[in-house]
């Protein structure tokens, strides 16, 4: 049986030791590590993924938060169904008050999801995520005066701080100018969220492929063969 890769000898030796002692020496972590290293050695693309795989949880969290942020933002700036549109179409003070409360809740929900996304991207690291964070920080700086009116400010780590009472007291029309339909801030943020979600989803998919030991170099069948022997004995 020929096994290619920088860990071939160690891999075969460890597997042989395990399979010849009746499965009593169950050092699965060692064998799994060697198998994984062998796959990585045969495919540079998989090697890059290996560095990200340890942070897969952060990518999954970032994707979920980006999608959630996008949902809140879309609800706010929907040209037909937004609370801002509904508020503009009513003369009932009570209804307008209800729309005000809904707008405040949606903005607060958007900020909460946004902060989770930023924190997850920071934890995941990498050049692409750093670029995303730079663009988000730049957007928040560009609109810091408008956001300050609603009690929103950017922290040093890129997350957003919120004064809840200031947001609750914010003028509904002023909120619409920033978060509502045709608002430049909302449109720009929406584009960034879409880009982040698409790229992060692609990374999550790639990491899932890596976790199942797929490799375009042809080492997939080799991995499965060796892994199969281990699983049978285990």
Give the tags.
single chain; 234 residues; mainly alpha; 2 domains; 74% helix; 3% strand; elongated; disordered N terminus
Q: Roughly what fraction of the amino acids lie in strands?
A: under 5%
List the helices and strands in order: HHHHHHHHEEHHHH
The overall average pLDDT, rounded, is 80
Shape descriptor reads elongated
Structural class: mainly alpha
- Please state how the strands of the largest beta sheet are arranged side by side: 1-2
Q: What's the gyration radius in Å?
A: 25 Å
Number of helices: 12
Weakly predicted, low-confidence segments: 1-9, 22-26, 213-223
Query: Can you count the beta strands?
Result: 2
**Total of domains:** 2
* First-to-last CA distance: 20 Å
- Seen as an oligomer or otherwise, the chain set is single chain
Structure write-up:
There is one protein chain. 74% of the residues lie in helices and 3% in strands. It has a two-stranded antiparallel sheet with strand order 1-2. It has helices at residues 8-19, 28-42, 44-53, 56-77, 83-88, 93-124, 127-142, 144-148, 164-168, 172-179, 184-211, 219-233, and strands at residues 152-154, 160-162. The protein contains 12 helices and 2 strands. The chain has 2 domains: 8-43 and 215-233, no CATH class; 56-208. With 234 residues, the protein is mainly α. The longest helix has 32 residues, at 93-124. Helix 4 (56-77) runs antiparallel to helix 11 (184-211) and helix 6 (93-124) runs antiparallel to helix 7 (127-142).
């Amino acid at each position: 049986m020929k096994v290619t890769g920088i860990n071939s000898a160690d891999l075969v030796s460890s597997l042989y030791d395990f399979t010849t002692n009746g499965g009593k020496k169950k050092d699965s972590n060692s064998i799994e590590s060697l198998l994984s290293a062998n796959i990585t050695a045969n495919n540079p693309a998989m090697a890059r993924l290996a560095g990200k795989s340890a942070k897969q949880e952060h990518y999954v969290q970032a994707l979920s938060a980006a999608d959630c942020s996008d949902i809140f933002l879309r609800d706010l700036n929907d040209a037909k169904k937004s609370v801002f549109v509904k508020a503009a179409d009513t003369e009932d003070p009570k209804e307008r008050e209800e729309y005000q409360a809904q707008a405040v809740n949606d903005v607060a929900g958007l900020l909460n999801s946004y902060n989770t996304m930023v924190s997850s991207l920071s934890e995941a690291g990498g050049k692409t995520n750093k670029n995303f964070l730079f663009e988000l920080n730049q957007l928040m700086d560009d609109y810091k005066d408008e956001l300050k009116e609603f009690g929103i400010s950017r922290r040093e780590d890129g997350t957003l701080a919120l004064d809840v009472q200031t947001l609750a007291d914010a003028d509904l029309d002023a909120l619409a100018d920033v978060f509502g339909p045709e608002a430049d801030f909302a449109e720009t943020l929406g584009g960034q969220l879409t880009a982040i979600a698409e790229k992060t989803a692609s990374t999550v998919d790639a990491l899932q492929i890596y976790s199942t030991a797929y490799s375009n170099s042809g080492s997939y069948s080799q991995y499965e063969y060796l892994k199969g022997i281990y699983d049978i004995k285990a």
